[in-house]
Amino acid sequence: MVTASTRLTRSGQDAPPVVPRPPRAPRTTRAPRTTIGRLWASTVGKKAVMAVTGGAMFLFVVGHMAGNLKVLFGPEAFNEHPRWLRGIGEGLLGYGGFVWIARVGLLLCLVLHMTAAIQLARRAAAARPARYQRRGPVRGSYAARTMRWGGVIIALFLVYHLMDLTAGWLNPVGDLEHPYRNVTADFRHWYVTLAYTVAIVTLGFHIRHGLWSALQSLGASNARRQRVLKGIALGVAVLICAGFLAVPFSVLTGLVK
């Protein structure tokens, strides 16, 4: 007979008793020692990082839109803009040095922004381990519910945009010395304009909700100013969309040749 503490092997001899393993202690994560580490580990800190990096990328978007609109003033004005950018700080950084510093800074902002967004989403999911049996209607705007997919669409378009107009690999002309020819060659095709429009409209939703969230995270919003700030965020998003879309539709309709 085998008791709770003994058992028989196939040869009939008693085997050593089975001792149950003690339960494992939960893994503890070491608390960050630095102020920056503690800030990054906190939910508030991650939201602040998203707000600051989003603000830096927003300023780039505004500057990029202003540069794009120079296409309406002809090839000379548009082709001069990238040369002017590469010449900023030339005596100290060399020709094009400022552009590379800006690219590295924007890439860092993008990585921090996306990492914080993913970690916040996982943290929110972990706080509710059990799914709802019946999910009710989600409150909030359309942009708030689609920020994740919007970020994916923007990231994919950014890769294509860089390969098209920055590197020239996917552009019909691909002449980096004449950006005007590259832009007009692109947007003469309706499908390129359509893809660009989808990406820009998605960016508009992202900016509208992101700007509103950033104002909340940085403490600029309250009950009295909520409606005004939402209106400002929507107005800014619409203006940016209109500024970006003015270029492809001007080319597609023949206003810019």
Contiguous runs where pLDDT drops below 50 for at least 5 residues: 1-7
Count of extended strands:
2
Structural class: mainly alpha
Largest sheet: 2 strands, antiparallel
How many helices? The count is 10
Strand order in space, largest sheet: 1-2
N-to-C span: 95 Å
Strand content: under 5%
Radius of gyration: 27 Å
Summarize model confidence as the mean pLDDT.
84
Helix content: 55-70%
What is the overall silhouette? globular
Order of helices and strands: EEHHHHHHHHHH
Describe the structure.
The structure is a single chain. This protein is mainly alpha-helical and 257 residues long. The protein has 10 helices and 2 strands. It has helices at 35-41, 43-68, 75-86, 90-93, 97-126, 142-145, 147-166, 179-187, 190-217, 226-252; strands at 7-8, 14-15. It has a two-stranded antiparallel sheet. α9 (190-217) runs antiparallel to α10. The chain starts with 6 loop residues before the first strand and ends in a 5-residue tail after the last helix.
